[in-house]
Amino acid sequence: MSFAGEDVLRGYITALSNWGRWGEDDVLGTLNLVGPDEVIRAVATVEYGRTISCTLPLDQSGPQRGFLRNNPRNVMVATGTDHVSGAQDELPAGLGLAHGFGRSDDLLIVPNQAGTAWDALSHVFWEGKMWNGQPASLVSSQGAAVNGIEGYAGKMITRGVLLDVAATKQVAALEPGYPVSVEDLEAAAEFGGVEVMRGDALLVRTGHLEARRGEWGDFAGGPTPGLSIHTAPWLHAKEVAAVASDTWALEVRPSELGVFQPLHIVALVHMGLALGEMFDLEELAGACAESSRYQFLLVAPTLPITGASGSPTAVVAVL
User: What's 122-151 look like in SS3?
Assistant: First the structure.
């Protein structure tokens, strides 16, 4: 079925594809651009030793409102009230009497992309294929046989660059539906006094998360500012390793091309670009403005969930 921007989308796919660039069996995509030199450069950006979390809490107050995903739920299976009531006087598994010992224990029920998260290279398909030309059929009810999030384990450490588009434009938040352009990204880099380099992770702040925090409304799935599909050639040319933002989908919604998530189709499926969503950038933006430093060591590991299509991440920026 054709759509309004089909020629544009297919043109970008042809021009920007990285399939085969790092071998036929590659499962890292643009994270191949982060090697020892890039990690050492990232560590060298640390000046103050200040650590800042860019991660939303995993709880029932999160941004999901039933559109595709639910909010995380932490379920207590052993509690302090159990302990003081005497319910834990005997240890489990036949281990005998507790003799005053007590414990709490819990389990987390969480969609892998309910909050601050990275997409796996198996997360999006286009015409029956995923990253590096692998068949979409390799993702089954057992998980992804290739391109699962476990391939990213231990890899999300590089130089982070905050591109604060909202601050550059002197607004609290960009309007929903605003497409962040190449000109916007370059203006934000100039505003922050940074040069985007090979292997960087770009954190693009729109202010949208801050504007919706707590109330959320249609934050998940509704109109949102975000990266324009037309930033794809720039991201490819700059050889960035990852891009993340403070919105539900990273890219602008509604779609510019009349097809769902066109930037994901080009960037994730064909470029192999690591994409992150719902990064909480408010405190980081304040710290960067205060120090006039918009580069930092970014540590944002995924969980090695075998075959998963995405993973929660605990993002830490070190200034």
Answer: CCCCECCECHHHCEHHHEECCEECCCCHHH
Taking the C-alpha atoms of residue 24 and residue 134, their distance in angstroms, rounded to an integer, is: 9
What's the rounded Cα separation, in Å, for the pair 191 and 100? 59
Q: Which string of DSSP letters, residue by residue, matches 211-263?
A: HHTTT-TTTTTS-B-EE-GGGHHHHHHHT-SEEEESSSSSB-BS-SSSSS-HH
- Residue closest to 253 by CA, chosen among 208, 189, 211, 216: 208
Structure tokens at 204: 């693009």
Closest CA to 117 of 288, 253, 262, 242: 242
Q: Are 246 and 284 in contact (CB under 8 A)?
A: no
Start-to-end CA span in the chain (Å):
48
pTM over 0.85: yes
Please, which residues have CB within 8 angstroms of residue 1's CB and are 6 or more apart in sequence?
A: none
Give 32-76 as a DSSP string: GG--HHHHHHHHHT-SS--EEE-----STTSS--SSS----EEEE
Q: Encode pLDDT of 212-240 as tens digits.
A: 999 999 999 999 999 999 999 999 999 99
Going by the DSSP 8-state scheme, the letter that residue 115 receives in this structure is S
Domains and CATH numbers, the chain: 6-66+111-318 (3.50.30.50), 73-109 (no CATH)
* Contact between 107 and 75 (Cβ < 8 Å): yes
**Among 38, 286, 248, which residue's Cα sits nearest to residue 162?**
286
- Please give the structure tokens belonging to residue 278: 């719902």
